[in-house]
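Example (one chain per record):
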Amino acid sequence: MDTKTIIENLPTTFYRVSAKALVFSEDKKKFLVVLEDNGYWELPGGGLDFPETPEEGLRREVKEELGLTITDIAKQPSYVLIGNNMKGIRSVNLVYEVKLKDLNFTPSDECLEIKFISPEEVGTINTFRNVKELATLMNK
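Predicted structure:
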């Protein structure tokens, strides 16, 4: 079955749930984004696999995609972002503030580069919807 057919047949109550990492720079003025293989900048993290908790999924995704180890995850998400992903599927991003052991990033097939950006800089790079939404919320 092709992706379009799958999307068209999803129940109206279906949401893809992802856990995303909010990693601040030392001065807390910038946050970490990753350049994905499709040319878009995104928050670190990804979709949850059943029956993972958001914390488990976040640790797994950051380790798999960036080669980085999370040392601390906030008890509650700082932001909840809801909208359509690039495939048109409704998605929920649970954005948790995290601390990393270090920034010794290892590029992967999915994540090519990392950098810190300020909310004001988000409009100058090619990002996913959720990064733009996060920047808007952070500026309020």
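Caption: Residues 14-138 form a domain with the Nucleoside Triphosphate Pyrophosphohydrolase fold (CATH 3.90.79.10).
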